[in-house]
Fold these 2 entries.
Entry 1:
Amino acid sequence: MTTTAPPSTGSATAAPAPARHTSDRVRAERRLGWMLAGPAFAVMLLVTAYPIFQAIYDSLFSYRLTDPGNRSFVGLGNYWVVLTDALWWQSFGVTAFITVVTVAVELVLGFALALVMLKALKGLRPILRAAILLPYAIITVVSAFAWQFAFDLTSGFVNSWFAWLPGISAETDWFGQTGTSLLVICLAEIWKTTPFISLLLLAGLAQVPDVLQEAAQVDGATWWQRMRKVTIPNMKAAIMVALLFRTLDAFRVFDSVFIMTAGANGTETVSFLAYRQTIARLEIGLGSAVSVLLFLSVVLIAFGFIKGFKVDLAQARGEK
Amino acid sequence: MRQRRRRRLGTAAVAALALCGLAGCGVSDPGPPTLTWYINPDSGGQAEIAAACTAAANGAYDIEVSTLPRESSEQRQQLVRRLAAGDSSIDIMSLDPPYIPEFAQAGFLAPVPAEVGARAIDGVAQSAIDGATWNDQLVTIPFWANTQLLWYKKSVAEAAGLDMTQPVTWDQLVAAAQAQDTQIAAQGRRAESLVVWFNALIQSAGGEVITQTADRPEDIQLGLDSPQSQRASAVMSEIANSGVVGPAFTTAGEDESVASFENGAAGFMVNWPFVWGRAKSGVEGGTLDQSVVDDYGWAVYPEVDPGTPSAPPYGGINLGVGASSRYPDLAYQATECITSDENQKAYFISDGNPAASLAVFEDPEVIAEFPMAPVIAQSLQQAKPRPQTAYYSEVSGSLQREYHPPTAVSPATGPDAAALIRAVLSGEELL
């Protein structure tokens, strides 16, 4: 891929034929590349770019689905309505809270599980991995229902199992207050996606060269020192990818809130807010504005992570 | 060479057949038109009616049922999306009354032919006619009409000294529940059921959520600042904070209410008549003791102020015909079959959903199966629909936001809710 030669400006005898030959080959390769990647690129444009642009366009209108006759252009008015509304900031706060809490806990738990999976005996490893990964295989809506039923006041078992703990009794209504509702939502999210983060971290751990570990060991480094100075710095890219993916995912949390509280008791997230404006209220303009703001938040998070971690993915791939 | 040609011909024939299969061409006898009836989930009664009406149509049409989601708000969401896109497969719809104005205003419903409309409202409870009407025009066909009753345990009411042959007030119920150390099962969950309860309270106090409807959302007049609204809020707050509603009150819907009534935790309950069918199934299935059901009593919905008749919640299902349906005439023909007194009676008995036609309540078979039928008929005559507006989901969503949890309802809740509805309807605030 690095053999592309600039058009020859030298003498006529400076072998133009091989240069043209290389150029033809490169052009053919490029064409082949486009032919292979083109359909996927077109599909990406269709399913990703088109809805994004459509949402941006729709967000500039006051438009109710059941009243298309009264559609009017309002410019950035919808954004002003959203950004000056306390509900948006409350939803944003709840979303940020769920994101920070779940991602922090998942990172610690996921790392511990990744270490367990890495160090497990060879015979035990497949069973252990399957057991750890099982929650991730369950559809989020199903897991949300399972957690809701477990904590439900009438059909749940949590109150009777944990009645010996202070503050829990047969009459503890977990979904009756903001704090306890958010606790259950966070627990469900953590249970569901810790396996995902541990899988990514396991891949990172496996990439840390044994030579470095051995050298540190020979130098007399303790386990903690090796972890801090060798293991973690060498898996920075894996940690960043794990954190980034999970943060983006957590920021779009919807299913658990939808199933467990339906947004009651101040548990509404940004995705849920967008859903209610667009689907329940049919206010396509306002809903699109919320969706675009959610999209921008996600872009900012991704940008922040990549800049903050200073990880050059191209370098990690060995392209530089 | 010949082999290759034969192979090519074969391929072409297979492709043509596949295309025909997709496009539906080449079928010489398409049979009678199929009408798709989008139904709300039930115990199979609507599917039985569809089969019976298909048989009765003598080949004029077939009715197929397609089941919508369980929650009425989700039914609305699915139908709205399809109707807005001009889905021609929606011939008949089972519609929850509060959403009918929105569907009518948006032009989603095919106009009701005059003679069909005249027959449809003949002998039907007034609340069901009101719920099927928008802008003084019948836009849907009443199918079954629902209303909430006050359910009570005879033993509890007797011990509390309540005379249930006379109307009772909420205050009396609270006092009785406190004296007997039992609960009142009401729906305090942030959902449509909470709006149903609040609307019944404000209407029973003589007020209305919407006093004047309008085509433009900004012009809708609200009655949430009124003394009647304050009275309704006071009653709701009193019940919620009286200590007789149970620990799960703020997350309880109709199903949770009936569960606590069945297990004996609640001695009083406001709920739809499905509780009777459920109790009988429980006895048949061995999950409920006959003595529990024998103790069931029923009366008209509680009053807010003594001497002022209550306005029980009105619900049920009406039939709408899709504006983009290919067979609107046949669809309306089918609705006449579906809503015949016979079918309403059969549906009442099979699924426990009361008829819209008042004659059905006098049928001896119905009375044998539902001894509370006369009380339901009386309640239907007294019942009041929820706010009639094309923006019902906004109004309902705002009320849910402001009146939940009912334990926190105060005199300021009414004006707050009015301000929120106004801001939401004029596009100045999110919901």
Note: Residues 148 and 260 of chain A are 6 Å apart (CA to CA).
Entry 2:
Amino acid sequence: MSNPQQLRYSKEHEWLSDAEGGVATVGITEFAANALGDVVYAQLPEVGDTVTAGETCGELESTKSVSDLYSPVSGEVVESNQDVVDNPALVNTDPFEGGWLFKVRVAQEPGDLLSADEYAKLTAGN
Amino acid sequence: MSNAPRLTALDALHRSLGATMTDFAGWDMPLRYGSERDEHNAVRTKAGLFDLSHMGEITLTGPEAVKVLDYALVGNISTVGVGRARYTHICQEDGGILDDLIVYRLGETEFMVVANASNAQVVLDALTERAAGFDAEVRDDRDAYALIAVQGPQSPGILASLTDADLDGLKYYAGLPGTVAGVPALIARTGYTGEDGFELFVAPEHAVELWQALTKAGEGVGLVPAGLSCRDTLRLEAGMPLYGHELTTSLTPFDAGLGRVVKFEKEGDFVGRAALEAAAERAATNPPRKLVGLVAEGRRVPRAGFSVVVGGQVVGEVTSGAPSPTLGKPIAMAYVDAAHAAPGTSGVGVDIRGTHEPYEVVALPFYKRQK
């Protein structure tokens, strides 16, 4: 499993891209997608919602369970991925690209986001 | 005693296949190898290979073995022919279901009872106690067998390439001793997927060899290893009850809509008879909640324990729910008040974390294979 170097990661297994023009993209990692199993339903935050770092902002439902989706940063949601709502399996098949979940205008980010290497260590052995 | 999970004879093989393992009734079992949806679809359209070694086998032998079973279980085991199998229940004195079982008659005086993993000890203890005073022996054979199932439309072809046994003559719910890939096996045409298929009981030391032979024989026809996750969605689509969900000690077979497994006409007394006669009468005069199917109109998945609601009132409870790969929609089994149990009843919803999602009431099963 490889975690893209250019992304940063939360301990709750979300990834965050660098902000372009203040807007960053959020998804869940391949590790998290594998742990969930086939995702069948995604409830994503909607455009205009305010999300808070470390707090629940949606849910991902797989065959066996429901998992809360946390936001790795605080800010305002400017786009959510309709492709994932229509085809939740994208989270499994393409977690770092087509399976992105939402875009957020970053107001504040916590200081504890991990690098790809640090995240790989966190998930090693699991 | 150690709390470490028990491992099947195929444990190392599952790990080498990259299985995601899960604790199930004290066993470390494969949940899935890749995508559970792909495994599910493979079983429906081609074939899947399951390790079911966690199931509990109990052997009864002796001149009065059949009498023990007629007394201990609610079914009429005397009428099961040699080489045939029967689905039945073992009940408490109060009629509550202790477990659902498959009983194979291996000989006139030899039977194998297969219990659910989570109930294997309970069933063993009950059978041992109920056999007291009969000329019969109850033997714990949980360690004597590994159990491998090959299920799906390609399974007869796959198995036929590995055995001389007369598979054409082997009916559904029948079992015969034979040899598969050179390994002695009890070959049973049973399963829990809604598909044609076989369950192979073998000595644990032969399990890896048999699994590998089946894998090779199925290579060209799409056989894949399949885990417990898809086993659950397969049985749910087929409307098959699961102990702990649709069946519990607080329900009698009549409450579960399975009153037909209780055979009052058999000779002699059996454990639970009086309570079950009362339950049958209650069910006839005042219908209990009925087990129905629910199909989601939306995409949110009902889970066991969620309330079924009509007009804001709770009228039932979901016992099992999952996204159905075959229907492409979430489905559930639920016990619902008789007034709302008819297929097509409108206005039925499930409370999913606070919102009432609409569901259609349908007759079970959701899926029936074309024969």
Note: The interface with chain A takes residues 20, 31-32, 35-37, 229, 233, 299-301, 303, 322-323, 330, 353 of chain B (CB under 8 Å).
